[in-house]
């Protein structure tokens, strides 16, 4: 099951930094919810050496029941947030940080980062956190904890056999 889409827009900012290998740093600075973007969904808002800003609109964010644990982990954190995955691309001859995905799932963001993607965060507003909280209450069911048997360190036939097999595997 999924919820109705929430359309968002992201503003990315490039600032100059004192670093000989990387002269600029990119980060998302603003996320707008449900504001229709007039004209092109991608446009440069400001182009200065010290501060360049680009607007990217048209991202649909939906909540999915199979991501309920990721939403729970997000609202359970100190600062619930939006996760914005972005890549550097060329637009009109300039390198620009282009958002590719926006999510509220901690697990989805972790999977993206595990895959080598850049993911930054912006704090989520109270109404989004409350909407997420209601969704989690309705759809998240934590898996029951399973009891694990502690291994026996007292010896015995099972431990002797395991040690013997371990020795054979290592050529002893």
From TrEMBL:
Residues 140-172 are annotated as: Disordered. It comes from Noviherbaspirillum album. InterPro entries: DUF3305 (IPR021736). It comes from the Bacteria. This is DUF3305 domain-containing protein. Pfam families: DUF3305 (PF11749).
């Amino acid at each position: 099951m999924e919820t109705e889409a929430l359309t968002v827009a992201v503003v990315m900012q490039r600032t100059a930094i004192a670093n000989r290998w990387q002269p600029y740093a990119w980060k998302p600075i603003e996320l707008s919810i449900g504001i229709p973007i007039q004209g092109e969904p991608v446009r440069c808002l400001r182009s200065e050496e010290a501060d360049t800003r680009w607007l990217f609109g048209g991202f649909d964010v939906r909540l999915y029941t199979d991501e309920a644990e990721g939403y729970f982990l997000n609202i359970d954190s100190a600062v619930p947030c939006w996760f914005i995955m972005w890549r550097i691309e060329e637009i009109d001859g300039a390198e620009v940080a282009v958002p590719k995905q926006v999510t509220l799932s901690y697990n989805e963001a972790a999977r993206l980062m595990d895959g080598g993607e850049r993911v930054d965060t912006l704090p989520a507003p109270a109404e989004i956190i409350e909407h997420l909280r209601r969704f989690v209450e309705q759809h998240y069911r934590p898996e029951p904890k399973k009891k694990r048997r502690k291994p026996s360190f007292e010896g015995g036939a099972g431990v002797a056999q395991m040690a013997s097999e371990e020795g054979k595997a290592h050529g002893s």
